[in-house]
Amino acid sequence: MVLPGNFQDMALFFDAKATGYERHMQENVKDFAAFYRSISEALLELGDSPEILDLGIGTGLELDCLFERFPSAAVTGIDLSTGMRDELARKNRPWRRQLKFITGSFLQLDFGCSSYGAVISSMALHHWTPHVKLDLYRRIRNSLRPEGVFVNGDYIASEENSIRRLAKFASSQADR
Predict the structure, then answer these.
(1) Which end of the chain lies in a sparser environment, N or C, as judged by fewer CB atoms within 10 Å?
(2) Is residue 2 part of a domain?
(3) How far apart are alpha carbons 78 and 55 in whole angstroms?
(4) What is the rounded CA–CA span in Å between residue 28 and residue 11?
(5) Is residue 61 part of a domain?
C-alpha cells in the first residue's frame, strides 16, 4: 500500500511547532481541559494496570488526566516528531517511567495482536484520508484485547470541507 504524504516533511513540520504546540492547543481547542480530560473519562474500566497505546502522542497533553485515572498504566506512545518527544520528556512527570515512546509513523508500525486494553488518539487522525483511516481502524481493532476500547479525540470536518481537502490532496498527489 502506498501511504499518502511525506512522513519526513510531516515530522519536520511538527518538530518546528513543538515548543509552542501546547500553547497553540490551549488557545484553539474549545474547552481545552475538558476535552483532554474526556479522553480518559471515555475509557472503560481497564483494571489496575492497563496497557494503552497512544497514537500521535505529541507532547502528551492527555497524559496527566490519563495517569490520574489509571496511576499504574503502561503507555506506549507513537509520534513522528522528535521535537514533540523532547517536549514531552521536558515535563519530567512522575509517570515518565511508565511511558515508552516510539518515534515513527503509526501508519507503518505493527501494533501487535490483542496487545492493548485501550488505544487512544488525540488530534492526530484528521491528517489522513478516509481509506488510510479505515486501514488504521482495522489495525487498531486487531491490537485491542477482546474487551478493549478505542477513543479518538479529534475534530470532524464538514462534508463540504472534507471534499475540498480530499480534492486538494488528490491534486497534490497528481503533481508528484
Answers:
(1) C
(2) no
(3) 5
(4) 21
(5) yes
- pLDDT tens for the 176 residues of the chain, in order: 233 456 778 888 889 999 999 899 999 888 999 999 999 999 977 888 899 999 999 999 999 999 999 999 999 999 999 999 999 999 989 999 999 999 999 999 999 999 999 999 999 888 787 888 899 999 999 999 999 999 999 877 667 776 777 677 667 666 65
Range of the domain at 82: 7-174
Residue 30: other Cβ atoms inside 10 A: 7
- State the burial class of residue 53 (Cβ atoms within 10 Å of its Cβ: 0-12, 13-18, 19+): buried
In whole angstroms, give the CA distance from residue 171 to residue 167.
Answer: 6
Cell 502506498 sits on residue: 2
Surface-to-core class of residue 175, CB atoms within 10 Å of its CB (0-12 exposed, 13-18 middle, 19+ buried): exposed
For residue 22 the three cell numbers come to 501546547
Q: Output the domain CATH number for residue 31.
A: 3.40.50.150
Instruction: Write down the residue that cell numbers 481541559 correspond to.
Output: 33
Q: Are 126 and 154 in contact (CB under 8 A)?
A: yes
Closest by CA to 51, choosing from 60, 43, 59, is 43
Domain total of the chain = 1
Residue 75 is assigned to a structural domain of this protein: yes
- Coil, strand or helix at 78: strand
